[in-house]
Design goal:
- By secondary structure, the chain is mainly β.
- The protein has helices spanning 63-68, 160-165, 183-194, and strands at residues 8-16, 21-26, 39-42, 45-52, 56-61, 79-84, 103-113, 116-122, 136-139, 142-145, 148-150, 153-158, 176-181.
- The chain has 2 domains: 8-84, Beta Barrel (Elongation Factor Tu (Ef-tu), domain 3); 103-194, Elongation Factor Tu (Ef-tu), domain 3 (Beta Barrel).
- The strands form 2 sheets. The protein has a 7-stranded antiparallel β-sheet. A 6-stranded antiparallel barrel has the order 1-2-5-4-3-6.
- A hairpin with a 3-residue loop joins strand 4 (45-52) and strand 5 (56-61).
- The radius of gyration is 17 Å and the shape is globular.
Length: 198
């Protein structure tokens, strides 16, 4: 389980594509903080550490993960958001994020708004039900507050801190990002659908 608060921006150092993909990812934190078998969210994708070196950790991506996420376009040198999994007693600063990516969405507009960036995204139609103003969504693993919703389009503001500490501020119109809808919204939406109310 994660909070959507990014701890670091990592770099893809190597990609091996023999069967399942094996990625080598560098990060500046001490690898002593990671155990083999630990979960790490990489651009919002929950992956398992299978090996580590002094400055890198290795993860394995199944065919389904590659097909359903932006990982299919990662290359050596790609920068990704990294969050290590929660431990008992850790502060909950964002919202609960599972690392089970729901799909990919597109940036449809980007505008400067004071010191922030106002982004608008288009989400696949089947997920629009789960969006609400002031609700939460995770984009590339980052916990964000939804500002407004109009059908399949929603907006968020990216403050300077988030621009600096994550990769989101570099996204341009047309960029594709992983998304995970809020878990509470998912359960409520599924109940409404089951009762024919949505």
């Amino acid at each position: 389980m994660f909070t959507g608060i990014i701890q670091e921006i990592g770099t893809i150092e190597k990609i091996e594509k023999n069967g399942d993909w094996v990625l080598t990812i560098s990060a500046s934190f001490s690898m002593d903080a990671l155990s083999i078998g630990a979960s790490v969210a990489c651009d919002g994708i929950c992956l398992t550490v299978i090996e580590k070196t002094d400055r890198c950790f290795l993860v394995q991506l199944s065919t389904e993960t590659v097909q359903l996420t932006t990982a299919r376009w990662w290359q050596v040198g790609t920068l990704i958001n990294i969050e290590r999994s929660l431990r008992m007693g850790d502060e909950m600063g964002g919202h609960l994020v599972s690392g089970h990516v729901d799909g990919i969405l597109k940036v449809i507009s980007r505008e400067d708004e004071a010191d922030s960036i106002r982004y608008r995204f288009e989400i696949p139609a089947e997920f629009a039900l789960y969006l609400a103003p002031k609700g939460s969504i995770a984009l590339d693993g980052v916990s964000l507050t939804v500002n407004e919703v109009a059908g399949q389009v929603f907006g968020v503001n990216i403050i300077p801190h988030t621009q600096k500490e994550t990769t989101i501020g570099e996204k341009q119109v047309g960029a594709l990002m992983n998304f995970e809808i809020d878990q509470i919204a998912r359960y409520v939406g599924n109940i409404l659908k089951a009762r024919g109310l949505a």
